[in-house]
Amino acid sequence: MEDAALPGARGVTASKRKSTSRRPPHTAARRSGRRGAEKERTARVKAGTDGTGSWDAAKALRRRRRLAAPVALTATFARRVSGQRREIKLLLLGTSNSGKSTIVKQMKIIHSGGFNLEACKEYKPLILYNAIDSLTRIIRALATLKIDFHNPDRAYDAVQLFALTGPAESKGEITPELLGVMKRLWGDSGVQECFCRSNEYHLEDNTAYYLNDLERISASEYIPTVEDILRSRDMTTGIVENKFTFKELTFKMVDVGGQRSERKKWIHCFEGVTAIIFCVELSGYDLKLYEDNQTSRMAESLRLFDSICNNNWFVNTSLILFLNKKDLLAEKIKRIPLTVCFADYKGQNTYEEAAVYIQRQFEDLNRNKETKEIYSHFTCATDTSNIQFVFDAVTDVIIQNNLKYIGLC
């Protein structure tokens, strides 16, 4: 518990703000009302399963209507803080692999001109490393899971894989010889069986994306696409800042490493935070932490969110919950029941019901529902249009809350 939680987390008493969060049920009548609200929320999620984010759209529309004139309010806020701090500091928090760094990349694409040719080329070594590393992880897991190659000849290819990957990674290229080895291994049905059991060991979400396209990414003239870059994975260490301008305001988005060893650095970023975006890996409900291979990623995320949501540092800080990787949850829930993480779950193993249930687990951790509202969004961090829409809604919330704080709304 102490490892998972943020040091210094305590309960808070905040200045009153309007809240739509529900109280925990204590009577049969309240439980009945809660079930009705959950059914309504499930229906809203279902309406957004086509990837357009229609539920988020409806919520954002209602909030924008309350603003009356968003553009005018933005200008009012900008004028009000001119001569003071005009910088909006957004702190990205969450466990490792929750999608924080991908959100930062999306801000660069949406608000900072994206990646030029040279920047794209710089991602090539990382992408090739991701592909090679993923395949070597699968091959190592074969013995652990007691899975054999379908074709015995692949055992020799496995030896070759480990012999060739070192030079390939140092040069930042996949040679024709290594390409052949990787394609044969990836095409083996035993390897595919091991890949399908990736919840039993550590494997990145981008594995199939890269290994299904080895010919393209191994070509000598290969230049990573924007999607290739968004799907690349590099563990964040330290503190990474990204500045951009949107709606006449300057934003500073701060990304920090999500591993336990990195969290002691978080406190250095707390000063002057306007809003926190807490990212949750929805599809991690059946996975374990990299750090100890025992703790559930979802349980770790819940404990960490509890520490942030109820921390004295953030009494007047907007709290935005990104329930990320909704696309992966929609695919995984068909194969792996939510009860592997939440034993008390009684709903159907559908995206709609599972998503609502997970959302409620996080929102119910808020011990100050009368004074603090959590703004939740279901996201797919690799989907630029989804993130663009959600961030627009998030910005409106931040502006509204800050206008309230300074007495203009």
From TrEMBL:
Query: Which key words are in the record?
Result: GTP-binding, Lipoprotein, Magnesium, Metal-binding, Nucleotide-binding, Transducer
Q: Where does the record locate the signal sequence feature?
A: none
Chain sites annotated for binding GTP: 230-236, 255-259, 324-327, 381
**One Gene Ontology cellular component annotation held by this UniProt entry:** heterotrimeric G-protein complex
GO MF, one annotated term: G protein-coupled receptor binding
GO BP annotations of the record are: adenylate cyclase-modulating G protein-coupled receptor signaling pathway
Assigned protein family = Belongs to the G-alpha family. G(i/o/t/z) subfamily.
Q: What is this protein called?
A: Guanine nucleotide-binding protein G(Z) subunit alpha
From which source organism is this entry? Synaphobranchus kaupii
